[in-house]
Amino acid sequence: MTVHDEDYSMAYALQYVLTDKDLKIIFKGELEGEKDSTLFKTTLQPSEILSKLSNINIDSLHEHYSNPCIKDGSQVTVKLNKDNKTKTVHLSNYYQADIGLAIELINSLTPKKYKIWYDKIILIKDQENCK
User: Fold this and answer.
1) Which of 2, 21, 32, 113 could form a disulfide with 79 if both were Cys (CB 3.0 to 4.6 A apart)?
2) Model's pTM, two decimal places?
């Protein structure tokens, strides 16, 4: 699984690469001449959450989820690989439970400065207020 968390205003992105063995965070500079660099890497131990991630039905996921009332803000793209299938899902200010589980796992393993902002309570509240 790959999560791409982009900050357009700062011209960079962080890419989180999660496998069954490890998690790696890569800085992706988007300015000319910037090189990608690994910021963090950790080895994974089997866990209940990792097991739940393997149960995600990628065929049931849509390619795009968005809150039409918010034009800026949280932009997360997730690429899932399972059973020789690949699915890319883009979330724009939107909480999706399966993706939320993946981000929760990533955030539980990373230092605070690399955590992905994906606040379930705020995103769901914003979705409910958008009528």
Assistant:
1) 2
2) 0.85
Q: What are the tokens at 9? A: 């205003």
Domains of the chain, residue spans:
2-129
In order along its 131 residues, the chain shows pLDDT tens digits of 999 887 665 667 899 999 888 999 999 877 777 888 999 999 988 776 677 788 889 999 999 999 999 877 788 999 999 889 999 999 999 999 999 989 998 999 999 999 999 999 999 999 999 87
